Amino acid sequence: MTTPGDIALLIVLAAALMACAGYAAGRFHQRRQSGPDLRDAYKTGYDAATRSVFSMAARAAGRKPDSPDADTDTDPDAPDAPDVPGQREGRHAVPEELVRAKTYRLPVDRVARAKVPRQVESADDPAPSEVNTSP
After folding, report:
1. Ranges of Basic and acidic residues compositional bias (predicted)?
2. Which positions of the chain have pLDDT values less than 50?
3. DSSP string, 74-101
4. Suppose 106 and one of 15, 65, 110, 117 were both cysteines; which one would form an S-S bond, judging by CB atoms 3.0 to 4.6 Å apart?
């Protein structure tokens, strides 16, 4: 003898099993189909990128260099560039004053918190007994 609740439970469980099986089959099908699609998309994108890079390089090679008179500085407030042998002119070069500047030294309490080995302290650094280490 079966109770009416058992039939409803069996129907719900069968529906859940069918939904899970359908989902798994769909994911498997999607994975099998995406392989060739990805290869085709990669090849198409690679070919397009190669064409654009080569055309950009051809345009850059075909350009005439600017005249040297066009590079004159008209701003009187601009600082003069230091004469350093071997310095490259470039758009992203670090300014020479930053390269030659002294590095920033952390206060002793911050160095201790950062767990950096202590260097030889100079006369302007406070003594370790004067440093407040509480947060």
Report:
1. 86-100
2. 1, 116
3. --TTSPPPP--TTPPP-TTPPPHHHHHS
4. 110
